[in-house]
Design brief:
CATH topology of the largest domain: Outer Surface Protein A, domain 3
Number of helices: 2
Structural class: alpha+beta
Strand content: 35-45%
Number of domains: 2
Mean pLDDT: 87
Radius of gyration: 21 Å
Helix content: 10-25%
CATH class of the largest domain: Alpha Beta
Number of strands: 13
Distance between the termini: 59 Å
Shape: elongated
Low-confidence stretches: none
Largest sheet: 4 strands, antiparallel
Amino acid sequence: MSRIGKLPIKIPTTVSIVYDKSELKVKGKFGELTQIVPNTIQIENNVGVLIVSPTIVNRSSKALQGLYRSLINNMVIGVSEQFTITLNLVGVGYRATVQGQKLILNLGYSHPVEIEIPKTITIKVEKNTTVNLTGCDKQELGLLASKIRAWRPPEPYKGKGILFKGEIVKRKAGKSGKK
């Protein structure tokens, strides 16, 4: 049973929502997002509150109710406040810079790694080792962060790699010498 799906979504005054049959458009000061909604989900727009409910009550439609409620809530938060993900580069010589629409990472390879930045995401680099990703689409932001992290995931012996803010790497003991 979906408990998250039953919660109403509070809509800020700066956000406008248009629901047309199967497409939901959410527009705010940071951008516009769209989502295709299946026929098994019904959306009611009351004044300042959005309610997501299933049209047919069964197990799969209840699960979809919770999913689409979370997706729509993330859209509303994204266009009104934006999401931020912070990545820390830990390692000797690990650096990041932004040149135009590319993020350039020096991660100990023989070549710099270049990653294209989508137009909906802004990247700021602080102190050459902290990368701040900001955008209104939470899914796209998480995907870009995982692509960046995939170049140097944290390793457990020295603790080097690309880490999310606040992430703790569980360290392992190295080799023990002959006794």
